[in-house]
Request: fold
Amino acid sequence: MSERLHYRGRLEQIRIYLGKQLRMFVYQNDWKVLPMAALIAGLVTFAVGKNLFKTQEGTLSGCFALVCVCIWNGCFNSIQVVCRERPIIKREHRSGMHVFSYVTAHMIYQAMLCVMQTIILIIICSITGIAFPKTGLVTGNFLLDMGISMFLITYAADMMALMISSLVKDTTTAMTVMPFVMIFQLIFSGGLIPLEGAAKKLSSLTLAKWGLQNLCALGRYNEQPMVTLWNTIWKFRSMVIDGEKPVEMITNYILDNNLLDHVLQESGRYNLNILYEMNSANVMQCWIILICFALVFAFLAMALLKRIDKDRR
Reply:
């Protein structure tokens, strides 16, 4: 584009490319990522929101689902943005485009998208009736803490997808790679599938692991009751031993003496997870790690695009 050739300064090129992204948002239907984010958030919160922040099981599965939504939103935002215009980037780079300006403009634009998606997700969670804790661990406001956390998860995933888009040669390859990246993130999050040995160490390289740790700490996982043990015992109420039903006798005693809440809380106390420790240091550590992931992915995207002139694809 001839307009860009008149501006060699990096800051001016950032402004030009950011303007281009905003025009694409309006005129090329990039805005569709927002209603899609609302639809996905609605489906997920409807399915898992009933016990979110109420029981350990509900919090773990609910936070895992929210992390999945954030990672999906981030990946979908930018998985095709570079590879779909690779020939244009190569031509403009030879005409004086600074890769730093191009990637920085994308970083700013994608951050704006991630903020909007995070706000939509929190609104959907509120509409579906999720009972949020009253106070946050870092800012004192839970919704603000949660919003920062979900934004950082989404943005780190966005920068990861931007890096992948800078690496692959076309949109078909990008969309083929994306499911494998998602599967890797979710399997090695350490949330729903217990990991041991090398697999457990590998989980530290995933955004999902730090995102889940972040949200579970904010959601006060370790303070909540555990219901799995009680539900399992309840299934054996009819078991007969020497003509007696000991499980039924125990469960009836607990119910008749209003001890169920105490039993559930004690079950939770024996199921604590040190990774989900409820304190501001834990949350802020996760924030810093997610920020570092985002910056590393952005740097790698720049490094890949700086070699675009040597690309023979």
Q: What stands out?
A: The first helix runs from residue 2 to 5. DSSP finds 14 helices and no strands in the chain.
